[in-house]
């Protein structure tokens, strides 16, 4: 592979073009980690302990996603930010019932923390779409797709909690 800038390796040494769907997904998860680390650093700098604690968990899950994708193994995920996978979905769909607050949307009055969280949430959703486009076979398994879906819910819940301050 030396000197072959338009190719890279998948599992077991299989060589593919860098625009291969799996490589696109791998790059998107890597980018997602960068966004999450930025959001975490921003929360820590602002002294937002609750967001920082939740974002540490988000970073951990993204690292687990990277490992599952790179090793072609199922993602083992039971929950994050203190909620089960089912609770993440329920809380994000019905925030009034579970958190006492309605749905939130970014607008011209959003503060920087909310804006950073929203950027992270949209990046998660983008990664999920790329995962779906890559297919649910050997290259993008259903556990990674579900993990990305629940990660989107988790970031939205962090946004909800932030907006309630």
Describe what you observe in this structure.
This protein is mainly alpha-helical. The protein is built from six helices and four strands, in the order ββααββαααα. The strands form two sheets. A two-stranded antiparallel ribbon has the order 1-2. The protein has a two-stranded antiparallel sheet with strand order 3-4. The relative contact order is 0.17. The model has no long low-confidence stretch (mean pLDDT 90).
Short description:
The chain is mainly α.
Supply the key terms:
single chain; 165 residues; mainly alpha; 4 strands; globular
Task: Give the secondary structure arrangement, pairings included.
Blueprint: E1 7-9, E2 15-17, H1 21-46, H2 49-71, E3 79-80, E4 83-84, H3 85-93, H4 95-99, H5 112-134, H6 142-163
Antiparallel strand pairs: 1-2, 3-4
Work out the strand percent.
5-15%
- Gyration radius, to the nearest Å? 17 Å
Low-confidence stretches: none
Order of secondary-structure elements: EEHHEEHHHH
Span between termini: 53 Å
Mean pLDDT: 90
User: Strand arrangement, largest sheet?
Assistant: 1-2
């Amino acid at each position: 592979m030396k000197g072959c800038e338009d190719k890279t390796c998948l599992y077991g040494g299989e060589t593919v073009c860098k625009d291969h769907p799996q490589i696109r997904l791998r790059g998107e998860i890597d980018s997602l980690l960068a966004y999450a680390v930025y959001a975490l650093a921003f929360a820590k700098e602002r002294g937002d302990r609750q967001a920082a604690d939740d974002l540490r968990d988000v970073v951990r899950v993204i690292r687990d996603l990277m490992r599952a994708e790179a090793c072609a193994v199922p993602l083992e995920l039971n929950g994050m930010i203190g909620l089960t996978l089912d609770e993440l979905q329920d809380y994000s769909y019905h925030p009034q019932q579970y958190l006492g607050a309605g749905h939130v949307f970014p607008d011209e009055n959003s503060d920087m923390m909310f804006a950073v969280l929203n950027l992270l949430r949209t990046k998660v959703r983008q990664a999920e779409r790329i995962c779906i486009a890559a297919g649910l076979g050997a290259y993008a398994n259903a556990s990674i797709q579900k993990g990305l879906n629940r990660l989107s819910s988790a970031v939205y819940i962090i946004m909800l909690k932030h907006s309630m301050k």
